[in-house]
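Risk register update: the risk of archive-format incompatibility is retired. Evidence:
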Amino acid sequence: MASRPVTAVIVGAGHRSLGYGRYALEHPDEFRIVGLAEPNPVRRRQAMARFDLPPRQCFETAAELASRPAFADAVINGTMDRDHVPTTLPLLDAGYHVLLEKPMAPSREDLLQLVAAVERTGRRLMVCHVLRYAPFYAEVRRRIAAGEVGAVLHIHTGEHVSYHHMAAAFIRGKWGRREDSNPMLLAKCCHDLDLLCWMKSGVPPRQVASFGGLSYFRAENAPAGAGTRCLTDCSIEADCPFSARKNYIEQGRWGAYAWEPIEHLDAPTVEDKIESLRTDNPWGRCVWHCDNTVVDHQSVLLAFADGSTASHDMVGGTSRPCRKLHVLGTRGEIEGVMEEGRFVVRRPDARKGREYSEEHVDVNVRAGMHGGGDLRLVADFVRVVRGEKPSLSTTDIRDSVNGHLIAYAADEAMRTGTAVPVG
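Archived output:
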């Protein structure tokens, strides 16, 4: 297999799966997209053109794809969260390896069903926990594995979700309603929970406590003068950081979300976008007058089987988006912020006039999503499908379940106010 490119079919032509598919355009000698399953005719047509796909290998649904004899090595499944399990199961049975967007499954029962299918079929399923491949986290993990900070006693992670990201995805967007999607912790922070488990090198989590809620983005907190839509009846739009005009037109952020309602237009103008936001575009709504129900902040405290602990804080609506990490071990500690591209290793230093020493480590943070991890993930998936040795970052489903189990338990712990067993 190493003598030819690994071939794959895209299932769900959204911006995540198309982003992973970019690896095929940049490395055609290693990876090729040869088919597609996408119900939206506009997206199907665009993806067919992007990857030069023959119509006979393009389908409307994953079920239609799975009903045909397999014609590729693998599938990139970038469907919406609650479609992951029902689309992946028949594809595994059809003989495809799967690169599956996170989160894998909305419930513990669905996740275990997916694991059982992988074991039954013998196929490989890798999860898109791309942060494992970001140079920042990969180097921290390497140093922990090498014993540089001794035994890990505690890990703290924090995700600060910016005001514009919170508004686009978790208030106005597809992940804003707990009833229709997943808990915020699973939808946004399963990366971070996976990192906690990965840094602990297979030590299983045992118990979780969690607190949080939807405190700020509620109708009763709307400032005086706020309307129901930014560009129709709001008198404070010009000064509001959540303004749809500011975020999606002036800042040019989150176009993959905000312009989905007018994606049938080949080249929408600014006037087209403004009219869309003024009328029926969900991303034109006031952030205090939406139907969002997911939390805007949540904290998690976790106990591992070896007695060590971990904690994670998710805060939505922050000025600066970032992910923080602090690992404390018996011989030292590592602390840093992924977006800064560097971390500090501290060790005790008992010499006279000293307290500790510091080693400042710069890592290669290139432009791109998730600290440069996206395409590194695809490169590793190609190697795994070829049967080569998995990397330290490889996200095999059996190694990725614990982060999801923590999310399920934390959601229950927050709702019940009790500590909940994991698993």
